[in-house]
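Quick one - inputs below.
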Amino acid sequence: MLNFVFDNKTEIIFGKHTESQVGELTKRYGKKVLLHYGSGSIKKYGLYEKITKSLNESNIDFIELGGVVANPKLGLVYAGIELCRKENVDFILAVGGGSVIDSAKAISLGYYYDGDVWDFFSTGKAAEKVLPVGTVLTIPAAGSESSTATVITKEEGELKVGYGSLLLRPKFSILNPEITFTLPNYQTAAGAVDMIGHVMERYFTNTTNVELTDRLCEGIIKTVINNAPLAINDNNNYNARAEIMWSGAVAHNGLIGTGREEDWASHIIEHEISAKYNVAHGVGLAVIYPAWMKYVYKHDLNRFALFANKIFDIEINESNLEETALKGIEALENFYQEIGMPIRFSDLNLDDKHFEEMASKASQGGKVEVGLFVKLNKEDILNIYKLALK
Amino acid sequence: MLNFVFDNKTEIIFGKHTESQVGELTKRYGKKVLLHYGSGSIKKYGLYEKITKSLNESNIDFIELGGVVANPKLGLVYAGIELCRKENVDFILAVGGGSVIDSAKAISLGYYYDGDVWDFFSTGKAAEKVLPVGTVLTIPAAGSESSTATVITKEEGELKVGYGSLLLRPKFSILNPEITFTLPNYQTAAGAVDMIGHVMERYFTNTTNVELTDRLCEGIIKTVINNAPLAINDNNNYNARAEIMWSGAVAHNGLIGTGREEDWASHIIEHEISAKYNVAHGVGLAVIYPAWMKYVYKHDLNRFALFANKIFDIEINESNLEETALKGIEALENFYQEIGMPIRFSDLNLDDKHFEEMASKASQGGKVEVGLFVKLNKEDILNIYKLALK
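Output:
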């Protein structure tokens, strides 16, 4: 086990009707609030009214900025920073999924910074002061509701880049599973893939003696795999929605990565798909993970066999670990398909014509390797895209 | 799943040599520090020198109060409050196990309060303002290093009572598994029992649809059961010590209780043993748990069978769940014995002469029931003590 710091200061308010507490919670941190949201689905299902009612009841002065899209754009972040400065905003309330929350975090990051907020993403420089952010989560997937991360896409050059800082953890996040009843099944499924991915990035590690976090990882993945089909078959299944929603937050709040090297190759390789084709991140991950697994599993047959056994109850064939490992990968593919996810580029009607460009960008022009479990260069990334073609 | 709030703001600094960061961490919160510790083992093994060196290097002015004993006493808490007020202390650094940390928390609780600090314990009244506390953990067991709880014993009447408040979470806790190399095996084992107990208090619940936290509970218990014997067989086994130390904190930081009713009967029933005989809490729990389980298992055979299966890999006999449940209880007893713990009063050379008095106190003179999984009155508690006799 490696040395680590675990510092997760996001307060989670979880359960039915909890969105009615948003005014009271916001009041602790801000007087002038930016209400940030997406393309309007919060207005369609009545959430907007509940949120603004609660803010008004707490006498909170707020302005609004909607329009966040999947794979949130730098342009809107710039607009948000300008608006917040002009209106002397002291708190950002993000109501939406990971894209809205990531956009809010990026605005909070740029607010006090004199230079271009993209500097943080392009150079990884440390944040020193940010606006506080709170969230009301509508799509369980990204884990941004209690994570340190934000991922923003710069339109020019289709650059999708992540950035992390402890300062970016939301002050509070309200998680009401009922709000997710209206999610399209495709989004529920993509969310499940995303949160499983966040666990896999930690699970596949070269760090040994990480028994506790291995068990926690397995518990989260199994819970998501058990409950995603239930939520899809019955959209109003509160308990299944609750398991998924809490799993998504715990998957990415830092706990399960404690004491271990994390990988993150698959996320970087996927980001190029989202950036190029504007595919939801979870959908892209369903395409990339099986290919990545097939490409790297020989690096640690034991761990892949363990994955097959612990997640899918596949008996470990000690005399043929490779067989067990491959069965595990196949089982994961089957699960993705069962919940309606594509598992190949061809399932998305995409071909290989941008693979070279995407592999080049993922490896920063062939200059860097990605991942820590197995370090992958541009050629490796290209091979993974090819494995995922059809 | 029930509604919940999860708010765990303790920063964990985990790993080798981390105690050297104590000065730097303390400096963030205080200028005049009370260094609080136990009976002197921190001086025996060089930890005291490391801590005071780090505090001095950070130019921190500190005073000392040692002498905390197992089942920490109210008398020393009063002395600590008085000392802190006299010396204008603004931060308490607890270096020790759960007893030292609990004592520090109680001092922090009383510092700003005009009345008797025992009021909080006797009435459960809400804390409004406390001194900040940081910790360097030396005994993994109580989980106090990131919990909201403190348990103090009032000498007069041998009253051992717990109190909880979000304000009592330490600001930071330093966890270096190396510090635990010098622990006597008996203490390592009692710590393992204690942390498993913290999980069991959550695991045995009437709340349904708590799949994620069930899996997390099982992961923690299995990890402790796998690693405690390794640590006892080889005191310097860093990895086993690390698994245990991190498990103890995660077991009691609130995560695994999210969304579920918790029980806590066994803890209350055990507190009377500690208070009466000054037995370590974990030791008392090893005596109480098997008896409690045998007394209540019929309330939910499924859950006890699940416990047997998930923790001890005992195959579930669907046509005789009782058999599976009993095998699980037996396996837990065997584990306790394997690590050198008593499992009956007779193993501690104690008889039944105080059972009536203890049952009366645990039930506040027969006026209250304890536990939520199965509510137990004075008679039930007495029966459990009797079951645990020999």
